[in-house]
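ARCHIVE CARD
CATEGORY: sequence design from structure
SOURCE FIELD: tokenized fold
FIELD CONTENT:
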């Protein structure tokens, strides 16, 4: 079972910035306590990026020369360190997908940057690792069809737009209707949830959706965006899942993939608890549940 992490996933941001960059490190620490070992991914190449990103934007990210207007939409400056982390994060999702095809499961302890659009990042997302990986798998003939299962509390709008020209990549997004982005894109299937939804109702919705997604997409791999921001304590979520509910969600996804006999690769996704140690434990528990390790929720 392979987990991908790189020390450069944690890039310095301006003082007092609200994005919890240190969560990648606290997640790695929590996974280490559970006995997980890590491999470092290779950096994503320009050729990979421009399958879904505009060449001018990919070049701007690589050169750490992203226009201010786009940096404002992203929410932080694309410094050389952020450029490196963004490209490594794409490399991590790509590596996890390749490893999952071989082993059945793998995870990137970053990624899930689902708001990044072809010609510019948005919402803390610089490059769309899910879309780049999906396009790469299809372009290189490693799979003929795939499913992106986006369980972050926000819609995977960038992924839907980036993959609009790739019909063999089926995008699914389960998100809070009234959350960011205000203007939603159109995924292969979108399910919008009411504010304040808690464990039981959420799990009922997911359980009802999963079989049909496998029937329609007939995927040869599933790329999971396992954001933990549907949690009740999340600053940016609008739902009310508990830790136990998130882990039940993740076990349900695992069981659906196993039942269908389809390998799955997991990305970290969103999570904005003020307590970054607790947030790291939450992300770690999510990844471990997807990996098939039961973690007792408090
Ligand atoms: Zn999110």
């Amino acid at each position: 079972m392979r987990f991908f992490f790189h020390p450069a996933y944690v890039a310095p941001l301006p003082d007092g910035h609200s994005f919890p960059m240190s969560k990648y490190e606290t997640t790695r620490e929590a996974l280490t306590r559970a006995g997980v070992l890590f491999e470092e991914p290779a950096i994503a190449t320009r050729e990979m990026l421009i399958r879904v990103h505009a060449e001018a934007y990919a070049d701007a990210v690589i050169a750490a020369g992203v226009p201010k207007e786009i940096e404002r939409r992203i929410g932080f400056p694309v410094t050389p360190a952020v450029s490196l982390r963004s490209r490594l994060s794409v490399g991590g999702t790509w590596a996890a997908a390749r490893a999952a095809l071989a082993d059945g499961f793998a995870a990137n302890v970053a990624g899930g940057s689902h708001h990044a659009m072809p010609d510019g990042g948005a919402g803390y997302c610089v490059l769309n690792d899910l879309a780049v990986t999906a396009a790469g798998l299809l372009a290189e003939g490693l799979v003929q069809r795939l499913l992106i299962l986006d369980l972050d509390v926000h819609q995977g709008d960038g992924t839907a737009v980036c993959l609009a020209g790739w019909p063999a990549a089926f995008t699914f997004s389960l998100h809070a209707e009234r959350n960011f982005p205000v203007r939603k894109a159109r995924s292969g299937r979108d399910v919008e949830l009411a504010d304040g939804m808690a464990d039981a109702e959420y799990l009922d919705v997911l359980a009802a959706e999963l079989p049909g997604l496998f029937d329609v997409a007939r995927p040869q791999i599933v790329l999971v965006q396992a954001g933990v921001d549907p949690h009740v304590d999340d600053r940016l979520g609008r739902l009310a899942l508990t830790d136990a509910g998130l882990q039940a969600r993740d076990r349900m996804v695992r069981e659906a993939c196993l039942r269908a006999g389809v390998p799955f690769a997991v990305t970290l996704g969103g999570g904005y608890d003020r307590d970054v140690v607790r947030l790291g434990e939450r992300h770690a528990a999510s990844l471990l549940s997807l990996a098939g390790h039961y973690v007792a929720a408090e």
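CARD ANNOTATION: The beta strands are 2-4, 38-39, 105-108, 146-150, 169-176, 189-193, 222-225, 264-267. The chain is about 40% helix and 10% strand.
SHELF: design records, drawer C
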